[in-house]
């Protein structure tokens, strides 16, 4: 029995081992015309096995690039597109700088702090008050995502005033969405997220079976 650990490494696993073997066979052909025919046929099969790539702009160019990459640039054929340089694949991407700005409360996140800053800049009035209350409800939902039991409205209102530097405040008589409603909403979102993850895993598992 042949195990995956004893086989050659899959260069691009999405295409499977059969495509890699077809490319290895094409490399072994001594006649250039036969290699060209084999390359065109392989590219057609690659596109059929991965229909999602057809949504990419100039996807045929992408398929030919993948053909040469899988062959480790050993396949000598006439490509309708410029052949990518092997050296460019080894160039490391530039490091993306991570924002160093401090977040006062991790459970609200940077986006929430930015929302509060924007609300703080609004002119006082009924519109600002309504938006501020919506933001406070979002804050309460975010808080309960981390602390899954309960939180007093007074805590949220205190954080809101602190993060807005006193420019976005609500009266103490204001009542935010009920904790039980927000917890139920959070649980529903968590179930949806897990359901999508399981569906995605099943899809990947089925695709891997077909490729093997």
Query: Count of helical segments?
Result: 7
What is the helix fraction of residues, given as a range?
55-70%
Biggest sheet details: none
Approximate strand percentage:
under 5%
State the separation between the terminal residues, measured CA to CA: 14 Å
CA-based gyration radius? 28 Å
The low-confidence runs, each spanning 5 or more residues with pLDDT under 50, are: none
Order of helices and strands: HHHHHHH
Domain count, please report it: 2
Number of strands: 0
Global structural class: mainly alpha
Note the overall shape.
Answer: elongated
Instruction: Name the average pLDDT.
Output: 83
Verbal overview:
- With 212 residues, this protein is an all-alpha fold.
- Helix content is 57%, strand content 0%.
- The longest helix is centred in the C-terminal third of the chain and has 33 residues, at 179-211.
- It is elongated.
